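Form 12-C: Joint structure prediction
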Amino acid sequence: MTIIFQDLFEMMLHQHLLGPSTSLNTNSNSVLQSANALSDGVLLSHSQQPREELKTTFETREGIYRVMTLAEYSRPRGPQQYHMQGVLNNQSMVHSGAPVRVSFVTIPKDIVDNNDTVTSQPTSSSSKDEPEDYWSDKLCFNVGKELYVYHYRGTHTAADLARPIDKRVYKGTAPTVHCFNQELANPKSCSLIIGFSTGQLQIIDPLDRSTPAPISRLYNEDRTYDKSTVTCIRWQPGQPNIFLASYASGNIYVYNEEVVAGTTPPVWNFYKQGEKFAVYTCKSKIARNPIYRWQIGEGAIHQFNFSGPDAKMMATVGHDGFLRIFDYHNMELMAMMKSYFGGLLTMSWSPDAKLIATGGEDDLLTVYSVNEKRVICRGQGHKSWISQVQFDSYCCTTEEDTENIEEKQNNSDVNFRPGPPPSTSSEINTTPVMRTHAKRATPLSATSTLSRCSFASFGTINGTSAAGAGVCYRIGSVGHDTLLCLWDITEDMLKPANIQRHRNSTIIAPMAGLEIQTSALAGRLDILTEASPAGNGGASTSSEPSPAVKPVEKPKKKRFHRRGFTLGRLNVGSSGNSNSNSNNSILPKTSNGSVNSSDKKNNHLLISQISCCEETRLLGSRLCPRIQDVPVIEPLMCKKIAHERLTVLEFRQDCIVTACQEGFICTWARPGKGGGNPNGPKRDFINSPGTVSPDVGGAQQQKPNWAGYNVTNTNEYTAMNGISGQQPTRSNSSYNTADDDKSAQPYRVNNHYRWQN
Amino acid sequence: MGANGSSQLEKEITGESFIGNEHYYGLVNFGNTCYCNSVIQALYFCRPFREKILQYKQQLKKSGAAKENLVTCLADLFHNIATQKRRVGTIAPKRFITKLKKENELFDNYMQQDAHEFLNYLLNTISETLIEEKNAEKDRQQRHGTIKKGNITVNLAPATAGLEKNLETAAEKARNETTWIHEIFQGTLTNETRCLCCETVSSKDEDFLDLSVDVEQNTSITHCLRVFSETETLCGDQKYFCETCSSKQEAQKRMRIKKPPQLLALHLKRFKYVDSLNRHTKLSYRVLFPLELRLFNVSDDATHGDRLYDLVAAVVHCGATPNRGHYITLVKSNSFWLLFDDDIVEKLEISSMEEFSGMSSDCSGNGLQMPSNNQSQQQKNSESAYILFYQARDYDALRPNHHATHASI
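Section 2 - Result
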């Protein structure tokens, strides 16, 4: 079977000329209106229900997220056109077809310079016909049998659906997944791998404008390697020519772009084996693709990803309900976890690669500690299967972050750290793996300030032994229930619950925990000014960037629970909180115990220690604890944000991106973001005419902002915010919002059996 | 078509690394009997049920020709399928259908019937028949005296009692009698009510053969079961009479599963009566069903509360209205899935299971689709699971016991 590519680019442009505002009509609310108008007269339908209106904002502790309705991407057609062209079947295909996926690439700058990069931009881009897009991020998404590549302007300008960089329509097969090669991307070229429902892989370069059009490379063209659907594609971090593709058949194939793609069916040589997985190589005289085949578990592999830029670990989730963590380079199984029931559909590494979040057919979020090889907690809030989980690395405070803070508080009064240096800027907006790297180098400013606040306030609030911990992970999840949920994993939840008493206390006293959390939050803010050594109040001091502070290597980097210790050190630097000792004394044994155990565990990290094969009954074991044996948490925020099932969730620096099966890709500006656009405020009202077109003038107006956006350096960052008249930094503005926002539902531990008490 | 499909399937299953000697037989439709065919197929692939039915057939053979009833017809049909030489083909369940129509006037027409109603009717009829036979057997034993048989000790006591009294107890027994139908399908719900005044919790247990759960758009069956057991507050007119307080009080009530059955039959309430339309409509909501399931809505004192279930069969309703449309069955056999559409049997990719979960409202009712030219599309898309059969995975582990204790029934 061969793929036929049709470039309908021209045709589509023409369509757009018919109605310049059709792209705006594709937003879901417009559909709602036209639907209602029609349904009165035409529809005889039995179960006709008007679409419920979707909220355009949601609120969390750190502030209000707003959907940028003009920044919505979709296939460039209005509903009316659908009708006229009789593409109804096509639309139905979309709903039942492959999940809509979105992938991003950030185009790095040619000249890497810390401070004055912006100046080089106009000159280099002036020769291009799309100057304002030259450096912009690119976005790719698939809907039905179609695939689109667009410039992505984030929260800053509206989506211009009239001008896709690339559009492809496939026959006989549908694109299911795609992935940009971030490491080799530049303004003139970037590789995009596309995987298909029928197993083929295609590499295209949507930025290459040379004529004749470059020939795309195909792998598994004749489906001789695998006939099943491609489920996930990743480039191997640090190896710009190696990519991996997982299949519904349960295989992951490793390809090297520089090696010939064999045309004959591969003959597989056994290479390495472990429990329920095996690695094969291709039997061939010369090196050929695929270079490896990993056969893992039973049934489809739904997703996989690497732990970080070193590709040290690779985790997979699949139909058999197992999360498997491999030592990628040694090809050894390091750890496993089983869903409560049913398949696991999605997984995500925490920025520090210590935790993995999974979601699947049990409707549960499961957080797994890689180091301790145990389930930390389960999250219940979704009403159906979870299709994507993602750590929000911009809202996570990891151990390194908190240690850096301590360090700084000891050394200097500056409590704001610079954004990632330009060298890592290319990795900022890509996959979580990439971000991890950037983050490790210099953890993000917003969250570090947050954690600092909590540290500063620590010990001044009575009885806040567990709340307000420094380490905090933010997880987001979207599902078939059209809900977006956000979850916070706080340090107290990361403590090993070895003792039964501990477990009970976590579960049984949810309300107490809730109150503490809230009061701690408020308390932190009250105390912020006096606790800060800078003494000027958090908001103003933290706006000062400090490029001088560099990431600090800590000797005992991997310690997991040493809050008591941390507090002691913190107090040296900050304005002495005498109560910290009492806090310290509350949990002395836990701290010591866990330090030892986690240190020990780290030594074994690379040693494969799978004992699960002996476990005949999974439930109740470490692989799959009973529901009452681990805390069950509720989401911080849970909101219906689409009419169709959600398939995509991406956290970016200034926004959250979601997509649903209808093919609408939404950008939610983070608190304090998105105001930089003059059109911004208008977007919040659904019922406004919505005819604000993304005209050229508007785009040019934004150019300064735009430039600032693209660079992740804090200088521009601050400047941009200054222009828009927002709070000087995201961190502080968001934090202040949290102060006002008492209604946001804080984290709490849910007692599953609460009713009886 | 049917023959072609079968041979295709035959090819496919012989190509597989195929274990066991399973038979896949389509059932001929005698005019709107797909409600019956679909349920029979599902039950055939509920192994505990099939084994009992085939056992019954064996007993029947031994004990000689019994009076023909629905159970014997079903046993014959199952036996017929299981003993075919070819692995795939079609069979006409003529005797069963004829008997069904004769026994119950409800089904004595060419109208489409509700598959769930039929399932209920069938299970109840089987269990009643079994009890009758058991009682008849007992009566015979008593009448003939207990000398001939070896296992008489229990029966001596009632035998010595007066005949009238004996009949009474028999009737009493019949009501509480359990048969293998109950062993397989019966679970227990516990209805807990907590008085908000005195905090006293009272609970009442009730048995069920299947659970009927309300469906919501874009949810999973897991969620529907959670909602089934959600706490509701009784207030206003619905106040609850608390015996401790001796007065009507506000109370919280909820229903949770105390004893999860071996084979959990879940009926999705997709047919809802709409007052404004004065008829039943179908809720084609997209309700996902995982292939594995554990119950969240079990009571604290539940036995086997977290047992793992595997989906073994699903009866799917196709079409937009309750009265029209079609029933098909999805069935798991060995490691793969099959679709039974009357006489057509096809292999099913596991990835396409999700297509039978229903459709999102926004697809069915966004007003963009013209009813006229889109009827077939809609019809196709409203293939939605209606009855799900989940079998406890520990069933196999329990089997030896099971056989030993209940082989006599």
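Section 3 - Comments
Residues 313 and 331 of chain B are 4 Å apart (CA to CA). Chain B touches chain A through 50 residues (CB under 8 Å).
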